[in-house]
Amino acid sequence: MRRFFDSDLWYSFSRNPVTIVSAIVAILLVAGAVLAPVVAPHNPFDLASLNLMDAFKPPAWTADGDREYPLGTDDQGRDLFSAILYGARISLLVGAAAVLFSTSLGVVVGLAAGYFGGFVDSALMRIADIQLTFPSILVALLVDGVVRAALPREVHDQIALYVVIFAIGISNWPQFARTVRGSTLVERNKEYVQAARVIGISSPRIIFSHVLPNVTGPVLVIATLNLGFAVLAEATLSFLGVGVPPTQPSLGTLIRIGNDFLFSGEWWITIFPGAALVLLVLSVNLLGDWLRDALNPRLR
């Protein structure tokens, strides 16, 4: 621990006020999402506890507000503060799982392409190039639509979360693959790799035991930045009505629900979830930008 506090990474972090504020905001949002069952005053997923008579209550500080609902309620009578905490939990779960999937796939593809070269490199990179010609959100929509069309309608809600994770993850792997490929092309010609080949170490062991640890820096930066993009992609899909089911609303679903009532005066139903999404994505992206600069030796 003491070694970490003496490192250049900690020095860079402690001298950057924007990064510190972003880290605090991100920690508070993530902690609130993870601890939602403990800190949320209500459970918005418990349909038996909902009361339609409490629908459309404004925030507590307005004239008609209720202290029981600090940020007001939505059209179902759900406490909006609790719904945001639970919604952020789902959004972060989808975003983290999608980034983990795309990172794993992209790193494996990039290592294989960079280390073996030749036909393997050409074939894998051409697939990545083709996918990069399409916007990520269109790829996610296409994958989501194909999976839903191939499966029975009665199982759509049960697998909706996994479909969204797969759709977002499969649309972002080329970024990791291209970055890892470039780093692997440099590493494979270094002395330690040549020495490992001479003494008879197998290619898979060289790739994962020797090359992989030396290409994780750029991967970590891209993964951090992609977490914000994945959360935003999930919100976009849910806003379009093809994300998680309405019975388990994410931030995107809450924004979509509130958008229907925005011009009728119930502004809080969409404004507060939207503000939570902006703070979450912005704080994660600012942390990713700082990490990219901190790990770049040219900027030291």
UniProtKB/TrEMBL annotation:
<dbReference type="Pfam" id="PF12911">
    <property type="entry name" value="OppC_N"/>
</dbReference>
<protein>
    <submittedName>
        <fullName>Peptide/nickel transport system permease protein</fullName>
    </submittedName>
</protein>
<dbReference type="InterPro" id="IPR050366">
    <property type="entry name" value="BP-dependent_transpt_permease"/>
</dbReference>
<comment type="similarity">
    <text>Belongs to the binding-protein-dependent transport system permease family.</text>
</comment>
<keyword id="KW-0813">Transport</keyword>
<dbReference type="InterPro" id="IPR000515">
    <property type="entry name" value="MetI-like"/>
</dbReference>
<keyword id="KW-1003">Cell membrane</keyword>
<keyword id="KW-1133">Transmembrane helix</keyword>
<dbReference type="InterPro" id="IPR025966">
    <property type="entry name" value="OppC_N"/>
</dbReference>
<keyword id="KW-0472">Membrane</keyword>
<feature type="transmembrane region" description="Helical">
    <location>
        <begin position="20"/>
        <end position="40"/>
    </location>
</feature>
<feature type="transmembrane region" description="Helical">
    <location>
        <begin position="159"/>
        <end position="176"/>
    </location>
</feature>
<dbReference type="Pfam" id="PF00528">
    <property type="entry name" value="BPD_transp_1"/>
</dbReference>
<dbReference type="GO" id="GO:0005886">
    <property type="term" value="C:plasma membrane"/>
</dbReference>
<keyword id="KW-0812">Transmembrane</keyword>
<feature type="transmembrane region" description="Helical">
    <location>
        <begin position="123"/>
        <end position="147"/>
    </location>
</feature>
<dbReference type="InterPro" id="IPR035906">
    <property type="entry name" value="MetI-like_sf"/>
</dbReference>
<feature type="transmembrane region" description="Helical">
    <location>
        <begin position="90"/>
        <end position="117"/>
    </location>
</feature>
<dbReference type="GO" id="GO:0055085">
    <property type="term" value="P:transmembrane transport"/>
</dbReference>
<feature type="transmembrane region" description="Helical">
    <location>
        <begin position="267"/>
        <end position="291"/>
    </location>
</feature>
<feature type="domain" description="ABC transmembrane type-1">
    <location>
        <begin position="88"/>
        <end position="288"/>
    </location>
</feature>
